[in-house]
Amino acid sequence: MEKLKSLAFEANKSLRLADHLLHVTYPLTKDIKLLVSILSSINKSMKFSIDAFIRYDQIYKRVRSDPDTYKEKLRLFSKISSIRYGFLQSDFDFLEEIDDIIKKHKESPMEFPRKDKFVICYNDYKTKELTLEYVKNGFVKAKSFIVKLNYILEKDRLVNNK
Fold first, then answer.
1. Which of 97, 124, 129, 150 could join 117 via S-S bond, C-beta 3.0 to 4.6 A?
2. Distance from C-alpha of 148 to C-alpha of 29, rounded to nearest angstrom
3. Three-class secondary structure assignment of the chain
4. Rounded CA gap, 55 and 49, in Å?
5. What confidence tens digit (pLDDT) does each residue in 76-99 have?
């Protein structure tokens, strides 16, 4: 039970950080490089929330396995648990995309700002342009996950996030 509480706490903490960076720091600095940091916080928040949802389902014996990688956890959650909580497959595709962007950003040989976009160059000569709209969309989707997680845990009186 403590593991579930700590996962929910970390998910909320990472989302608050992304929220602060997106709505306070970015408008003040207008530093386009912050988009990667915001996306990274969103990704971290989603990893914690997916882990918390899986842990919650394990407590009620709805899920038996405990996958090792994030992609396996995401697939397990999308196939088994997502119907119960009302998530769409497009949400999971978006979460995989965010995770891939963060991983490829760490491996990328070059990145640079261009006007109001942040361009990440991959090793295979492809590029990904991050925009403020894309990051805001990711934040909205992450927030819906966290809100549902908080609602479920508070409803069962497992966690009080106030």
1. 129
2. 32
3. CHHHHHHHHHHHHHHHHHHHHHHHHHHHHCCCCHHHHHHHHHHHHHHHHHHHHHHHHHHCCCCCCCCCCHHHHHHHHHHHHHHHHCCCHHHHHHHHHHHHHHHHHHHCCEEEEECCEEEEECCCCCEEEEEHHHHHHHHHHHHHHHHHHHHHHHHCCCCCCC
4. 10
5. 888 876 778 888 777 788 889 999
